[in-house]
Every structure is written in structure tokens, then in C-alpha cells.
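thought: user wants a sequence for this fold. calling inverse folding tool.
action: design(structure=
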């Protein structure tokens, strides 16, 4: 079969989102069930843009794990690299929804998440090498054997094609920010693209100002640095070009998953060869669409939906 256009590696789980907005979990009566996990969401987002995508991850050998296989296939994501781990439950994540900017997350990844049991000797290194885009996350570096597997995959790929490091810093998965920075420094030289928000950039390279963080990522070996600044928009730096793109205004329902929509759209834009500013505008708009919806994976937009928002939201369009 042809190589995957987008191959991601990392977290998967079941998202249980409250159907009552603006109240604490203590008061919530009912929940909706969705596929979740950053790497899996990015694969779904890329598939929504028509890209051949797959994810490398692991679930529990339980009904929730079976649900995730069904969901991936339903979204058009290849699940051949998704395997069960005996004795560990599929992770479940709850959130609270307090629009426009407060969405607490509660991860149930105990005693250990199966996606941290990705083992080096189980990787299809040829598929990793041949993928047009290989996407890894910071969470995958937080524990063994996933850490070794992630670093081995990066070293084997050795910057062939586009290799994206989603900085994805989640403090609850690490003993300290300094430990995360140590392992991020191991991975960055093998990435061609780094994507993260201001806090994640500070974790990776010790710089919080967007331009300084971008330069530090370049110094670490990254060709394209993408720094998400929340209400200030996105800064992208590549070679001698730097662009800043404002956010697309929408009424926020649930901000969770917007970053993953941004990631999948970024993959599509990079594979399409669009100019840097057009790519950032497209990715921004994709994230905005998901922020205006309740779910994550189920909310990922198509290319036509993103272009429609760009035309009506700020008068801009992309190089499609």
C-alpha cells in the first residue's frame, strides 16, 4: 500500500464530556462519549481533510478499547498500529465546560495508560520512515517504554519528510518541568517542525516570549517553529520568514481539541505546499471551528468548512 501521508504516535482514550454546560462535574447528569487523545485527534483531523492517516498507540483490552477502534475506522483512520495491553484499562478523560476559556480536564490514566506501553521492538519502522508526516507528542516522552520507542522512531526516521514534535506539555504526566525539558532536548534535533503554546515552548527551550522561543527552537534544529499565543494568535517562524496571524473570532463552546484541529489542518497545509501565512490562517480557522463545538474528534472540520469560515470570518482565503 502507499505510504501514509500522516502517521501520528501517542495518546488515545475515551472523552466523556458533560452535556450540561457551565456546571461542575458534581452537578452533571449526563455525558457524551467521544474518541480522544491528542495524537489520535490529529490523525482524525488529517483524515477529515482527505489525508491517508494512521496512529500508533495502545488501548486496554476492554469495551472502551473496542469503541476506539470502531471510532478510528469510522473517521477513516487506519488502526493497524493500535494494539491492546492486557491488565491496563483504556483511559477515560472527563472535562468541565465553562465557556469561553475555562475547561478543566480530569485524566483517569491509572495505574498506567496503555499508550505509554508502546514498545520499541513493536514499531513498524519502515512505515515511520516512509510517512510524509510523522507526528509525535511530548506526552510520549514522559514514561518508559514509550519514551525509548519515540526516540528510536525519531532517530530511525532521521528527519526524512516532515517530522512534527507536538510539545504537548501536561504537568500531571511529569515529575517536573525540568525533567520534561531534558527529554524534549533529546527529541528536538530530530524534528523539522515544533508546535506548542507559550507554556509548552517555555518547557521545551526555557523561553516564553514567542520570537525568542521560536529562535531557540531553530537553534535546537527545528526548521519551522509554530507558537500558539491564545488570544494573540499564532506566530510561525521558518528560515528568515516570520508571520503572525490573529485568531478567527467564534463563539467558544469548548476549547478542548482546538489545538488538535490546528495540528491536523497544519499537516494538510504543509502537504499541500501552501505559503506559511496561508497555512497558519487555515490551521487557525480549523481550530476555531472545533472550539465552537462540543466534542473533539467528532467536531473536526472538512477543508470546505474551513475555507467557508475564512471567507466569512475575516475575508481571507488560503492557497487551496
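)
observation: tool returned 320 residues.
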Amino acid at each position: 500500500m502507499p505510504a501514509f501521508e500522516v502517521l501520528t504516535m501517542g495518546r488515545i482514550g475515551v472523552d466523556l464530556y458533560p452535556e450540561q454546560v457551565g456546571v461542575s462535574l458534581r452537578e452533571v447528569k449526563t455525558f457524551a462519549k467521544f474518541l480522544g487523545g491528542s495524537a489520535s485527534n490529529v490523525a482524525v483531523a488529517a483524515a477529515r481533510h482527505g489525508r491517508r492517516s494512521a496512529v500508533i498507540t495502545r488501548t486496554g483490552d476492554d469495551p472502551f478499547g473496542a469503541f476506539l477502534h470502531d471510532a478510528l475506522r469510522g473517521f477513516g483512520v487506519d488502526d493497524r498500529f493500535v494494539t491492546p495491553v492486557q491488565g491496563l484499562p483504556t483511559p477515560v478523560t472527563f472535562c468541565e465546560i465553562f465557556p469561553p476559556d475555562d475547561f478543566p480536564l480530569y485524566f483517569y490514566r491509572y495505574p498506567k495508560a496503555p499508550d505509554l506501553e508502546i514498545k520499541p521492538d513493536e514499531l513498524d519502522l519502515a512505515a515511520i520512515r516512509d510517512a510524509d508526516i510523522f507526528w509525535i507528542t511530548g506526552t510520549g516522552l514522559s514514561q518508559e517504554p514509550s519514551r525509548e520507542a519515540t526516540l528510536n522512531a525519531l532517530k530511525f526516521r532521521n528527519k526524512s519528510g516532515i517530522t512534527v514534535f507536538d510539545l504537548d506539555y501536561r504537568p500531571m504526566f511529569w515529575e517536573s518541568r525540568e525533567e520534561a525539558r531534558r527529554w524534549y532536548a533529546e527529541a528536538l534535533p530530530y524534528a523539522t517542525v515544533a508546535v506548542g503554546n507559550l507554556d509548552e515552548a517555555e518547557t521545551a527551550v526555557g523561553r516564553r516570549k514567542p520570537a525568542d522561543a521560536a529562535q531557540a527552537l531553530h537553534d535546537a534544529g527545528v526548521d519551522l517553529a509554530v507558537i500558539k499565543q491564545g488570544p494573540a494568535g499564532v506566530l510561525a517562524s521558518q528560515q528568515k520568514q516570520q508571520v503572525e496571524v490573529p485568531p478567527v473570532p467564534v463563539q467558544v463552546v469548548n476549547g478542548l481539541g482546538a489545538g488538535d484541529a490546528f495540528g491536523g489542518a497544519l499537516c494538510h497545509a504543509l502537504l499541500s505546499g501552501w505559503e506559511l501565512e496561508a497555512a497558519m490562517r487555515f490551521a487557525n480557522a480549523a481550530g476555531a471551528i472545533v472550539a465552537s463545538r462540543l466534542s473533539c474528534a467528532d467536531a473536526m472540520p472538512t477543508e470546505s468548512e474551513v475555507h467557508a469560515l475564512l471567507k466569512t470570518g475575516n475575508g481571507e482565503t488560503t492557497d487551496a
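thought: summarizing for user.
answer: Here is the designed sequence. The domain at 6-11+36-90+111-312 is CATH 3.40.1190.20 (UDP-N-acetylmuramoyl-L-alanine:D-glutamate ligase).
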